[in-house]
Amino acid sequence: MAEPGTDRIASDFLLEIVTPERQLVEERVNSVRAPGIDGEFGVLPSHVRMIAGLGTGVLRYRLASTNEWSELAVSEGLVEVLPDRVILLAQTAEESQSIDVARAQSALDRARERLEHPDDETDIEATLDDLRRATVRLQAARGETTE
After folding, report:
1. What share of the chain is helix, strand, coil (3-state, %, to 5)?
2. Owning domain of residue 22
3. What DSSP element (H or E) covers 94?
4. Which of 12, 25, 61, 137 is close enough to 104 for a disulfide, judged by CB 3.0 to 4.6 Å?
């Protein structure tokens, strides 16, 4: 016979977001939407275990305490989903409210310029990555994502 209360379904889980520099998030959440390398995916409480590649995009999560959505611009990494937590290891992660819009716009403009006028030393793949990161940072900062 199961312990009393152990058969109830969890309503939230722990989200941990870590970059090489620091742990950015450690919050109880009830939903996560992440940009996977093969497209966006969602995680709800009691999700099946999985490991997925993290792509560049806007990560959204709903705080269990307030039911409000928070957003981060993230790029490249891994996501491990366990029944009681999600651990996201990202190369970069930046909270939407801390993004410098002018700096992100400048990075976008530089990447576009390099693509429009490449020279012999232009690394097209790296420039496309720069373009994607700048675009995502602007989307997150401006709240240009969908629910």
Report:
1. 25, 40, 30
2. 13-97
3. strand 85-95
4. 137
Q: What pLDDT is attached to residue 140?
A: 85
Least confident of 24-28, 32-36, 124-128, 142-146: 142-146
pLDDT at 1 over 50: no
Instruction: Give the β-pairing of 13-18 and 85-95.
Output: parallel
At 108, list the tokens: 């976008």
Q: Average pLDDT for residues 89-117, to the nearest whole number?
A: 89
Of 97, 118, 134, the last residue of a domain is 97
Q: CB under 8 Å to 103, separation ≥6 — which residues?
A: none
**Residues 64 and 120 placed together within one structural domain of the fold:** no
Structure tokens at 77: 């990494």
Least confident of 24-38, 57-71, 132-146: 132-146
> What would the two tokens of residue 113 be?
């310029």
Decide if 40 contacts 34 (C-beta within 8 A). yes
76 shares its domain with 47: yes
